[in-house]
Automatic annotation (TrEMBL):
One of its GO terms (molecular function) is pyridoxal phosphate binding. Belongs to the class-III pyridoxal-phosphate-dependent aminotransferase family. Its cofactor is pyridoxal 5'-phosphate. It comes from Paractinoplanes atraurantiacus. This is Glutamate-1-semialdehyde 2,1-aminomutase.
């Protein structure tokens, strides 16, 4: 029986079982390591690592550039790149050097004292993302959390608006979706919500300016926290005029605009903000900028920084709810400086985006060859296919087109032949090390998979 995704479910089930069995046979050491992890909650260091298509995770032995070797000795072309954390490639030499110099030569992993690297990183972020004043966290989640607090403080408003099926880290306020009745409600699976999410948040569909205006008109929204393109429910690109409309409406209703560039950084050296010429009040980012070392950052506009400066009622120096002990530590700052200045450079992005364009063109052609009703979206160095054509216009539509069984099959099929995709979606990210040959190798296997699936 063929379904919406255009594949025969019987054939899919049969091939998926074959590939899972091959995976188990191919990876005895990973399987044994998983079995030995009795004292890890869920057998993994972090519960998300159980998001595997084949029942247990592959254990990493070595990782360099866009290559990974697992403990069973298999080599992989890595298009997952740590779900963007390793967009710079694994252990890029300038980052390794900078971190080694900091740790081994100079010493001091964490001191609660500044190093000069931080101001250099801030200036570089300001050059790229337009907002002038930066502060650091260890994760993008925390950068978002602290930005939210600052904007609540400045506006005196309680709510934050999100797009349905967005992801901004484990931020309580963001776990809201548009329900079937058109109203906001808690996202399915929301763990231990501190309060009903509609007390803290509002929600609109991406690409829906009328819906956004309806919500902002309540006058209680401190900030819209958004990705300029959704990237965590497939890639959902903004329609012409949408982002300009968001900026106009946020200004009209006195609401601040935060661009979360953690993933949309793939659009170019200054992320989607520079690529589309956007004018957010705040930019948040994390993951890739540290070249693999934990870091998060938020940048504030001139006006916003001025509004916060001199507010003696806000404790920004101690326990007021903004900041963290290890944030801005010397190692994160050294790594981020090296990564931005020497690895994820303007020139590197040109190469990565060229590679991604070839990746997108190739999979489009293969999907077309087999007449599958799928679509391909590209955001700079990042490419994703979705089992729907035309591409979904918002998060709810995109969520409805998920096909976990098909996705898992493709992931395992590729992994069994030495290619890794991001476990959470059909996303492929190009690092500065990813070559045209790597893209071709992916396409050969992807073609084989679709051939088998449709024959
Ligand atoms: N923002 C976006 C857009 C993300 O995709 C993510 C993580 N995938 C985060 C924030 C949170 O990053 P972290 O888990 O490193 O805090």
């Amino acid at each position: 029986m063929s379904t919406e995704s255009g594949v025969d479910r019987g054939r899919l089930a049969e091939l998926a079982a074959r590939e899972r069995a091959a995976f188990a046979e191919r990876n005895p050491r990973s399987a044994a390591a998983y079995q030995r992890s009795d004292h890890l909650f869920g057998r993994v260091p972090m519960t998300w690592m159980n998001k595997t298509a084949a029942g247990f995770p592959l254990y990493v032995a070595t990782a360099r550039g866009n290559r990974i070797t697992d403990v069973d000795g298999h080599d992989y072309l890595d298009f997952a790149l740590g779900d963007t954390g390793a967009m710079a490639g694994h252990s890029p030499a300038p980052v390794v050097e900078a971190v080694t110099r900091r740790l081994a030569t100079l010493g001091g992993a964490t001191t609660m004292m500044p190093t000069e690297d931080a101001a250099i990183v801030a200036a570089e972020l300001a050059r790229r993302f337009t907002v002038p004043y930066w502060s650091f966290a260890l994760t993008a989640t925390d950068a978002n959390r602290w930005a939210i607090r600052l904007l609540r403080a400045v506006t005196g408003r309680s709510k934050i608006l999100f797009h349905s099926y967005c992801y901004h880290g484990s931020v309580d306020e963001s776990l809201i979706v548009v329900g079937p009745d058109g109203n906001g409600r808690s996202r399915e699976g929301n763990v231990g919500a501190p309060t009903d999410v509609t007390n803290t948040s509002r929600v609109a569909e991406f690409n829906d300016l009328a819906g956004l205006e309806r919500e902002l008109a309540h006058g209680d929204v401190a900030a819209v926290l958004m990705e300029p393109a959704l990237t965590n429910i497939g890639i959902v690109l903004p329609e012409p005029g949408y982002l300009a409309g968001v900026r106009e409406l946020t200004r009209k209703y006195g609401t601040y605009l935060i661009n979360d560039e953690t993933h949309t950084f793939s659009a170019g050296p200054g992320g989607a903000t520079a690529f589309w010429g956007l004018a957010p009040d705040v930019v948040t980012i994390g993951k890739a900028i540290g070249g693999g070392i934990p870091v998060g950052a938020y940048g504030l506009s001139e006006d916003l920084a001025a509004a916060l400066t001199g507010r003696t009622d806000l404790d920004l120096v101690d326990m007021g709810g903004v900041g963290g002990t290890l944030a801005g530590n010397p190692v994160s700052m050294a790594a981020t400086r090296a990564c931005l200045q020497e690895v994820l450079t303007d020139a590197a992005f040109a190469g990565m985006i060229g590679t991604a364009t070839a990746f997108a063109a190739g999979i489009r052609k293969i999907i077309e060859t087999y007449g599958l009703p799928w679509s391909v979206s590209q955001l700079g160095a990042r490419v994703e296919y979705r089992f729907a054509d035309p591409a979904p216009r918002n998060g709810t539509e995109s969520a409805a087109k998920a096909d976990a069984e098909l996705e898992d099959f493709l992931h395992v099929y590729l992994a069994n032949r030495g290619v890794l995709l991001t476990p959470f979606h059909n996303m492929a990210l190009m690092s500065p090390d990813t070559t045209a040959g790597d893209v071709e190798r992916h396409h050969e296997i992807f073609n084989e998979a679709l051939h088998e699936l449709t024959s």
